[in-house]
Amino acid sequence: MAPTFTLKSGTSWSDAWRRALAVAPEAFRDDRVLNLWNSTWQPDGRSLPATSPVDGSPIAGPPRVGRDTARRAVRAALDQHRAWRHTPLPERRARIAATLDALTEHRELLALLLVWEIGKPWRLAQADVDRAIDGVRWYVDGIEEIIGDRAPLDGPVSNIASWNYPMSVLVHAMLVQALAGNAVIAKTPTDGGVACLTLACALAAREGVPVTLVSGSGGELSEALVRAPEIGCVSFVGGRDTGAAVATAVADLGKRHILEQEGLNTWGIWNYSDWDALTAVIPKLFDYGKQRCTAYPRFVVQRDLFDSFLAAYLPAVRTLRVGHPLAVEHPGDPYPELDFGPLINAAKAKELTDQVAEAIDRGAIPLHRGEAADARFLPGQDTSAYVQPVTLLNPPRSSPLHHAEPFGPVDTIVLVDTEAELLAAMNASNGALVATLSTDDRATFDRLAPQIRAFKTGHGKPRSRGDRDELFGGFGASWRGAFVGGDLLVRAVTQGPAGERLPGNFPEYQLMP
User: Fold this and answer.
1) CA gap 338, 119 in Å, rounded
2) In 179-326, where do the E strands start and end?
3) Cα–Cα distance between 278 and 273 in angstroms, integer?
4) How many CB atoms lie within 10 A of CB 129?
5) Chain center to CA of 398
6) How many CA atoms lie within 13 A of 195 on its CB side?
7) pTM of this prediction?
């Protein structure tokens, strides 16, 4: 008989909300979050209704402000910037270090908010918080050598990021930008993370870090957050369509920019035999349902090896654990060990399910489809945001699954016969952030890897965004502007010698580190 699950004790949304109110009462009011600008928590904006992807229940929505408020917030951030940029580095370092101590104290609450707001399983939610803290601490420890005689920008850094990594990408970037001498502005991602970000920003603001956090529609706020003359740099993480509009704006204005955009990251299999290693890594590639910029949704497989590939792949994908991130058999049990929970919302789940159905209708061959009956759910819970893992062979060229990142637990497989076909299939999206080539022969890898248009290419192992001193960027349409990671992140948001050319992917040049 299948077990009946219940919610882990002390982890309800109301529990998390009460704890957030107690920790930062200045940033939360009754059932809503506030915006932070002009060094004050502001009760402005229109709070939109929101639901958790975990079970469809109501949670706090973003308090959306309009253009005029955003303009005032940017002007106030410039005033903060002009004061902060003259703050001695040891004092900036001390304030950021104190912020990290506060984030560490409340790491479990930040992670629990992430579970409810964006559906991350507990292990991955904690990892998101810890990577932010540990990553920024690396910069705090080495900032004197990294920054040298570089100076802050002339205006604050504006951050527009996707919802999937609020801490390890967005908060991490904001704190390093502030450490480098800049005031920072962030727009809350539309699809989730507002309470977690609000709490993190409240802890930073208490330590005197010049942080602005506002919510609103990207289209309405872009004039202030992207095009305003006060902005010294625009940092964007998101899709190619929105990124292209931001890229056009910053190019027209000649503004410093860091634009990380999606690409179809691929895993190639060529003259390969270490199938046990592949079996071991497959479940890890489904972390967070592949809702990340460095996920691998496409396998490009040598036709002669397809049977061996399937023998290694299918048993691994059948082990995936999916379900409610807080569902346990007994209230006092540990958090469940899951590979992923829901997608970011029910609309995305339906869109992806429809794309899979359409691809199959047009000729794709389903090799694996997970069963909802095997998932871990509470009795009667809303499961509309959940999608079970799917694997398709040869998606039709007319399908978005052929050429775009699905941002969900869908793998597609393309078979090839020649090295030329392998490279063409691995470069299907005109640039990617990461790629991997599994081949037994190191010489073959060394010959083919430079022809794969990805910023990082692994030899039989996945690549990630990286932490601390690991650099990160992209080729083609997957990245525009300055590369980041290590000292490059500080260089991207500071001024160096006259005529300096930053490593990056720019319209007029591409410069590798």
Assistant:
1) 11
2) 184-187, 211-214, 233-238, 256-261, 266-269, 298-302
3) 9
4) 26
5) 27
6) 31
7) 0.95
CA pair distance 291, 239, nearest whole angstrom = 12
What are the mean pLDDT values of the chain's consecutive 10-residue runs (513 residues total)? 89 98 96 96 92 97 95 97 97 98 98 98 97 98 96 97 94 98 96 96 98 92 91 88 69 83 93 98 97 96 98 97 97 96 97 97 97 91 97 95 92 98 94 95 97 96 90 88 95 95 91 88
- What SS3 state is found at 322? strand
51 beta partners = 58
Q: In 302-370, which ranges are continuous DSSP H helix?
A: 306-317, 346-361
The residues near 352 (Cβ < 8 Å, ≥ 6 apart) are 343, 387, 406, 407, 408, 410
Burial class (CB in 10 A: 0-12, 13-18, 19+), 150: middle
Tokens of 430: 């005109």
Within 13 Å and on the Cβ side, how many CA atoms surround 397?
2
> Taking a C-beta distance cutoff of 8 angstroms, is the pair 323, 376 a contact?
yes
The H or E element that residue 459 is part of is: strand 454-459
